Amino acid sequence: MEVFPDYAALSQRAAEIVIGLLKEKPDAVLGLPTGSTPVGFYDALVASGVSLARARTFNLDEYLGLPRTHPESYYSFMKRMLYDRTDLRPENCHIPDGTAADPEAECRRYEEAIRAAGGLDILILGVGHNGHIGFNEPGAPWDGRTRIVELAERTRQANARFFNNNIDEVPRRAITMGIGTILEARRLLLLANGAGKAPIVQRLVEGEPTPEVPASVLHYHPDATVLLDTEAASLLR
Ligand code: F6R
């Protein structure tokens, strides 16, 4: 665990870890999140000017049924944050297709694509207020693979801010990497910032690992690091 004075420093550190990996392995396979937490990380990565020309990326999740062109699809988010601002090649940017005609087949295809790329060298994670990682909500199986899931009410409420503050517009289902998929990444980096995350960070760091706090599975990963700002760390002993 590392605690930083502010969000900018936390984001910078996350970017430096990825930049270091890319120096060693320019064709590294990066697992990436969306949401508010990683915005500073993407900004720092882009500002560094590091080349992603040979890197491959796989996102954690995507809403089911939302067209890629919708401004709140995770594809659109990634396009704004990273794809359009770096030399990443479009064919190397992977994200589940939430509009696939056969979503179950899409989940299997996605798992296979990760395997074919050689697995994830690093996976960056945010954490939900209820402890979710990707869209693996409390109770999700720890050996789960990429699959279709129902979003928890709490998650839909949290994400309504991106959908005109109208929970009815928030999709009810998503495709997400499973916890089993996540655990196979060679390195995990979980980022959390802000006072709102302090209670879940406390449960994650100080509590017993339990499927009720999906992020607590990080305790079982051999190379997992949690990066916090002081606010997110404020309830830790
Ligand atoms: C997004 C994802 C989610 C978010 C989590 C935190 O791809 O996997 O688990 O990381 O919902 O979201 P923010 O960062 O908006 O607080």
Automatic annotation (TrEMBL):
Catalytic residues identified in the record: D61, N130, H132, E137
Gene Ontology cellular-component annotations: cytoplasm
Entry EC number(s): 3.5.99.6
GO molecular function: glucosamine-6-phosphate deaminase activity; identical protein binding; isomerase activity
Record InterPro entries: Glc/Gal-6P_isomerase, Glucosamine6P_isomerase, Glucosamine6P_isomerase_CS, NagB/RpiA_transferase-like
BP GO terms, sorted: carbohydrate metabolic process; glucosamine catabolic process; N-acetylglucosamine catabolic process; N-acetylneuraminate catabolic process
UniProt pathway: Amino-sugar metabolism; N-acetylneuraminate degradation; D-fructose 6-phosphate from N-acetylneuraminate: step 5/5
UniProt cross-references to NCBIfam families, sorted A to Z: nagB
Protein name, per record: Glucosamine-6-phosphate deaminase
Species assigned in the record: Symbiobacterium thermophilum (strain DSM 24528 / JCM 14929 / IAM 14863 / T)
